[in-house]
Amino acid sequence: MKLMVFTDLDGTLLDHDSYSHAPARPALEALAALEIPLILASSKTAREIAPLHAELALAPCPIIAENGAQMVTPGTEAAEDRSAYRKIRAALERMPAELRSCFTGFGDMDRQGVIEATGLDPQSAGLAQARCHSEPGLWSGTEEGFARFADLLGQEGISSRRGGRFATLSFGATKADRMRELIAAHAPDHTIALGDAPNDIEMIETASHGVIVRNTHGPGLPPLDGERAGTVRRTQAPGPQGWNEAVLDILEELELHRRAD
Ligand SMILES: [Mg+2]
Q: Is position 249 annotated as part of the catalytic site?
């Protein structure tokens, strides 16, 4: 296998506000024509990612869901096990009140709250609430408070990862863990990983070609070592526009594809 591509969704392949991937279409079509696997990796649930996976005709590629806590191939899922999710919710209720009150998880919101927090339509918001392994939420406290919150949850084996919009709580496995599993299984010559937020850093650093997609809404990413070494680049354009440019550039550099223009 020549190349595998791993991508975050919100703020990366999907526009932060509209959730559209339309500006990335030229690069998506190039990948499809070259039969290069595209792995969607997100903090979203598997059920939430499945419609996009189907729309982009990505079968039989698996998807990395709930920030890496789950990897499934749509259409082959076993029965949903929500025990990990219930443990995370129970741990939240044991947090000191002043920290607990700064975190509003999807489990604290009703459907309307999720719609307002995410901008999703009602059906997608329902799928976003069907969680098995992780709890995303909004943090309204200070950065110091978040560090304490993350530390206390860490003592219960729960990791806290910041995305472009939400902090996601889960037990262990990251997007990059799943990425490494797939690389070990398929041994591609090259890998591309694209992301916009701290929970994408390991994935970006694991790839032979890492891409930091510009997102002006989130905390952004600090300079990464790979940027100096030349293995990591930043896009000028945000979201799917930046995604499109970076993927087409790398395909040209790898001499896999030439732009039509
Ligand atoms: Mg993102």
A: no
Tens digit of each residue's pLDDT (9 = 90 or more) over 200-245 = 999 999 999 999 999 988 777 999 999 999 999 999 999 999 999 9
Of 170, 199, 229, the residue that ends a domain is 170
What is this structure's pTM? 0.85
Whole-number Å distance, alpha carbon 89 to ligand 1 midpoint, is: 23
In a domain, 71, yes or no: yes
Contact (Cβ atoms closer than 8 angstroms) between residue 117 and residue 136: no
CA of 83 to the centre of ligand 1 (A): 26
> 192, 261, 257: which is closest to 12 by C-alpha?
192
Phi and psi torsions of 254, nearest 5°: -85, 0
> How many whole angstroms from 81 Cα to the centroid of ligand 1?
25
How many domains, in total, are found in the chain? 2
Is the pLDDT at 195 greater than 90, yes or no?
Answer: yes
Q: Let me know if 161 is exposed, middle or buried by CB neighbors in 10 A (0-12, 13-18, 19+).
A: buried
Q: Provide the residue range defining the domain that includes 110.
A: 83-170
CATH code of 61's domain: 3.40.50.1000
Among candidate residues 8, 10, 15, 196, the one labeled active-site is 8
pLDDT tens-digit map of 19-55 = 999 999 999 999 999 999 999 999 899 989 999 999 9
